[in-house]
Amino acid sequence: MLIFSQAQGTQEEAGADGDPGASRAAPYQEHGDQGVETLHKRCREAMESTEGRNSQLLHKLQKLEQEQEGLVEHNEKLESILGETQSQSKQESKVEGLHQKITSLETELFEVQKNKSELDGNEQVTSGAQEMQEGLPDSHSQLPGHKNTFPGLQRASASRDLVDVSHEKPHKDSALLIPEASEVLQDRGQSPKVEQKQEDPCAEAKTYEEQMAKVVFLEEQIKNLREEQEVLCSELLESNKKKEELEKQLKESSEEKRLLLEEIAQLRCDIRSAWEQGDMRRISPALEQRENKFLPWQSSAGSLEGSLKQGVSEERFQQQEEKLQQLRQDLRRVQNLCSSAERELRYEREKNADLQRQNLLLQQECTKVKAELKQARAKLSETTETCSSLSAQWDRSQQKVKELELELSKCSQADKLRSSLQERLAQEKSRAGEAQKKVSKLQQKLKDSQHQLLLAEARASDKKLLEEELKEAREKEARVQQELHEEQLKRRLLEQQVEELRQQLRHSRETEASLAKMHVELQAKTLHVLEDEKKLDAGEHVQCQKENQKLSEQLVLLKEENKALYEEGVRLLNQKDLYVRKYNEMQLRHKDKIRRAKETFIHEVKQRDSRIKQLENELSESKLQVEKGKVLIAQITAENEKLLQERRRLLQKISDQEESPWSLRSGIPSLPSRGKTLEEENARLQDKLQLSSLVGSSQRLARSSPAPSTEDLKLAPGSHPQSKVLPPPRARYRGGDRGAAREEPVENFGCSTLCFHLPEAFFGSFGANFRENSIKMAFKIVVLKAVR
Hints:
Blueprint: H1 2-17, H2 20-24, H3 26-135, H4 139-167, H5 172-175, H6 177-190, H7 193-294, H8 300-416, H9 418-459, H10 463-485, H11 488-659, H12 661-667, H13 670-704, H14 710-725, H15 765-787
Helix pairs in contact: 1-3, 1-7, 3-4, 3-6, 3-7, 3-8, 3-11, 4-6, 6-9, 7-8, 7-11, 8-11, 9-10, 11-12, 11-13, 13-15, 14-15
């Protein structure tokens, strides 16, 4: 505008100083200036509108790109979360497996300790029994030995009970079994020692087998723990490798970021240079206009040429602005790429921190497992020591058997000394009486032990075995008494015991051979299990490799998708110009539509106002009529209440008359007539209520419905004859003398309709339809009357 004003000032000065030809051309120049200004205004408005549209389109594109980036980031987060959850679930399953194995090892070690304590008690009991058998030939000399060994056995069993309790305090579930085991040991110690000689070797053999099996099982579990430790170490190595790869990727991403920043700086320099070039191009056409406007205007053609030049310069400016916008979009893309790269860096750093934490946790678990392995090894060494001690005790028992064989040879010598023993029998009889007293005491103790055994049997599941043992103990007590009275039976009993010991030795040798076979079989089974586990590990490794390949393929696909999206963005930028042109055309059409819509809107507003006024008038009328209907309903309800009170009063009178038989005969003919009249009045009132409700609803429908057509008005007078031809609408069937239907007068509430009264028996399938049709006809008549 300043340029045009300066040009006009120069033109006026030229017209005042120049010749009369210039003064004649002044009006033409003014008209040309006005045309140029209008053209410039239009061009500027068009430019501003196009710039606004372009900015809107760019904003939409940016939103789309941001949404796409958000989706990509969301997918990456989901993938990372899935990977983390999978790794955590695997680690948790491994840790749970280790904990379960550790608990199983602890329980097994506890059982081994328990069995060891039982074996020690059994061994001491067998030693006491052997000492008792050695003391039988020398009855007098070895009876005090019995007295000494019995309290020693009790003390040993009590001490072992205390040791078991001290070892088994952490395990509350197994603590309940300790007193039962101690009671059984005491009962066995109090029972005759000949029994224990027969039963203890079998128990020792069974416990030895169980301990060997448990030792083999513990060795297998230790091997499994070592293998799992190796697997964990390999996983740690793999995680370290992944960490190194991620660090390399971080370095590469940082280099890419640096290159992107350099490119951004170059683009900014280019943008500044472009802006400077655009300003120079804006100034040059302005200078040309000034130079041209200093010259005299010859015709309006010159002004048109100037406007064309300005249009060309403005088109160039638009092209430059489009280029700048493209450069801005490139900048935004680069910034988005930088932000995504930074997010990836943060995500990878967080991953590294999580991996380090997991490594620390795994190392802690490894240390715990190592400590537990050390404890298990120490316990294994203890079990091996106990096994060695058991083998030494077994050798001692064999030596004692040899000593018993020597004692048999001595028994042959004892035959020679029988004569001397007969002399001592008298002395021993007195001692035998004392022994019998002791036996009676032992029997009482046996009864107490039997009571304790019954309690133990209620807790345990071995009732039958204990009862058999008690029976055998009683039989052996009888044998002991016979041996005390008769020395001849001693030889036979000793021979039988030697034979039984030999049988037990054979059984023990057979059990040793079976244990060796079981050990070989268990080793073979463990080898098979180890091979199966190796195969499973190899299959899992192959699956992991396949999953890694799938993930790499997915990464390649994602990269290709990113490239495709970039190409689509370029294509969208190319299509933007076409959309801008179409948008201009659409805007013109939109203006026409808006003009039409305004006209229609004004017309509809006027109609709406008139309609609102009509509805307000109708509402006021309807409110008045509703109030009138409420008053009528209140009157009708009051009349109904009065009639009900009269009916109650009459019913009370009837009840009173029924009580008095003389008054019944006089009041019987009058009561039915009164009851009928009351019922008829109730029916009339109900009909009135129904008609009032129908009238109110019909009037409301008439007000809300549009004006009736001429056909409806023609049909209105023809409806009266139909209503007159039909019978009355409602007649109640009364159980009177004749049982016929009676017609009742119809109350009129502002409408000349006829209501029908039919008997109730008639309202079946056909009667109900007929009644509905009659009510509909009456309703139509009321509507037509209201419309009139």
